[in-house]
Amino acid sequence: MDIPQEIIAIKRDGGCLSRAQIEQFVAGVVSGAFRDYQTSALLMAIVLQGMSHEETAWLTEAMMRSGRVVELPEIKRPKVDKHSTGGVGDKVSLILAPLAASVGLCVPMMSGRGLGHTGGTLDKLESIPGFQVDLSDAAYRAQLGSIHQAMIGQSADMVPADRTLYALRDVTATVESIPLICASILSKKLAEGIDALVLDVKCGRGAFMKTEAEARALAQALVKISAGVGKPTTALLTRMDQPLGNAVGNALEVIEAIDCLKGDGPPDLMRVSYALVAEMLRLGGICETREQAQTLMESAIQSGAALQAFRELVTAQGGDVRVVDDSLRLPAAEHCFELRYDGTEPGYVAEVDALLVGEAARLLGAGRAHAEARIDPAVGFVFSKKVGDAVEPGELICRVHYNASESLEAALNRLRAALTYSTRPVTIPELMIDRITGA
Ligand code: URA
Q1: How far apart are CA 73 and CA 253, in angstroms?
Q2: Which part of the chain is CATH 3.90.1170.30?
Q3: Quick one: three-class SS letters along the chain?
Q4: Distance from the CA of 67 to the center of ligand 1, in angstroms?
Q5: Would you call 46 exposed, middle or buried from its count of C-beta atoms within 10 A (0-12, 13-18, 19+)?
Q6: Which of 41, 61, 354, 416 lies in the 20 to 30 Å Cα band around 285?
Q7: CATH 3.40.1030.10 residue ranges in the chain?
């Protein structure tokens, strides 16, 4: 056993920590033997000196084992989950879980809440009246056995080390470190009891990683570490400069996800959803090629099997399943403002800045400025135009659904700043940037 300052000094001086030292650190974070100031010092040393892949894998495993690790041997289907690094309008999980369950996979999905400008899957689901995201372990397992999908929050006894470490990183400027991000993300996903993992690593204005180089480095590290601890993993690198799909805001995104499952989704959102489920099908051994996966997924949408799987999910978790056929049963905002193109000449949408749109949605009440803040499930935006679309003077760009009139002006200012136009046709950047596999 080393004393904490010896472990800190090794990393401060650019050395490598042993597996035992990393395990001692993580155990100390949970027990309190590592004081917050010592943990913060070590986190900063890791940010500045980095970690080898081996150290990162040991940190990931130690964090994963810091609490309860779910094992699901009774589930015979391939258990594959997806993690997205987060974006604006990203409601892919709501489409992906029922679609994947309808084509032979089991999706044991544990998700988070939204913070800052990005939305969280749990918040979106909770906009469905009655929907419960806290299930007992027995209910969770029973649901995975019967309908092959569950979407819940991670319980307090899982990965406690990440809760402490993330809270400290947030206030000590130590979030931006690929080893720490990898260990944080993967420890939580690997504690779910999955066989394989698909990652959507986003880059761009509305993403955690702003540049393609940063996102690629994160994706490569995630895939290598995850595969290294025995979980086959594929990452897709996708662009998040403008919102994904047309809707931003919790209930509005649920409506759009249901449209996708009915075969009437926006092309960009369908593209990312199909691409991710196709990777899940390949990792789960159900399909060998992308083409086979595409055929299977499209037939599940066309036959209504994927929508039926969504109905089963909502019903199993206590939600009002009538929302599927009647969106008026979801929370609706009292007011709607129509933002129109104020140019005097015809033009094209050049940018819909996802970061500013996310901030505008938060100002309306759709997101949180701090972890305890309450959200308004009804508010948000539905875009009629996206990057590259032609616009005529006075044409509708976006419907703003709002409740509190005092929030509207600030949100509109942010939204107007998010939108830029060009008089020349605009090339739409490729949404899918790359696919990174462990092989
Ligand atoms: N998301 C996480 O869960 N952890 C990080 O460190 C960063 C993003």
Answers
A1: 34
A2: 332-422
A3: CCCHHHHHHHHHCCCCCCHHHHHHHHHHHHHCCCCHHHHHHHHHHHHHHCCCHHHHHHHHHHHHCCCCCCCCCCCCCCEEEEEECCCCCCCHHHHHHHHHHHCCCEEEEEECCCCCCCCCHHHHHHCCCCCCCCCCHHHHHHHHHHHCEEEEECCCCCCHHHHHHHHHHHHCCCCCCHHHHHHHHHHHHHCCCCCEEEEEEEECCCCCECCHHHHHHHHHHHHHHHHHCCCCEEEEEEECCCCCCCEECHHHHHHHHHHHHCCCCCHHHHHHHHHHHHHHHHHCCCCCCHHHHHHHHHHHHHHCHHHHHHHHHHHHCCCCHHHHCCHHHCCCCCEEEEEECCCCCCEEEEEECHHHHHHHHHHHCCCCCCCCCCCCCCCEEEECCCCCCEECCCCEEEEEEECCHHHHHHHHHHHHHHEEEECCCCCCCCCEEEEEECC
A4: 18
A5: buried
A6: 61
A7: 80-156+168-326
Tokens encoding 224: 């290598």
- Phi, psi angle pair for 48, to nearest 5°: -80, -35
Question: Domain 80-156+168-326 classified CATH 3.40.1030.10?
Answer: yes
Q: Tokens in use for 335?
A: 């007011």
Q: 22-41, pLDDT tens digit by residue?
A: 999 999 999 999 999 999 99
Ligand 1 atom closest to residue 112's alpha carbon, by position in its atom list: 3
Q: For 380-438, what is each residue's pLDDT tens digit?
A: 999 999 999 999 999 999 999 999 999 999 999 999 999 999 999 999 999 999 999 97
Q: Beta 107-111 vs 149-153: how paired, if at all?
A: parallel
- Please give the CATH architecture assigned to the domain spanning 332-422: Alpha-Beta Complex (3.90)
Find, among 222, 121, 130, 127, the residue nearest to 180 by Cα. Answer: 222
CB 398 within 8 A of CB 438: no
Task: Determine if ligand 1 sits within 6 Å of the CB of residue 43.
Answer: no
**Which of 176, 184, 199, 200 has most ligand 1 atoms within 8 Å of CB, for mutation?**
184
| Tens digit of each residue's pLDDT (9 = 90 or more) over 80-96 | 999 999 999 999 999 99
Contact status, residue 316 vs residue 247, Cβ threshold 8 Å: no
Cβ–ligand 1 distance for 181 under 6 Å, the answer yes
User: What's the sign of the alpha-carbon dihedral 150, 151, 153, 159?
Assistant: positive
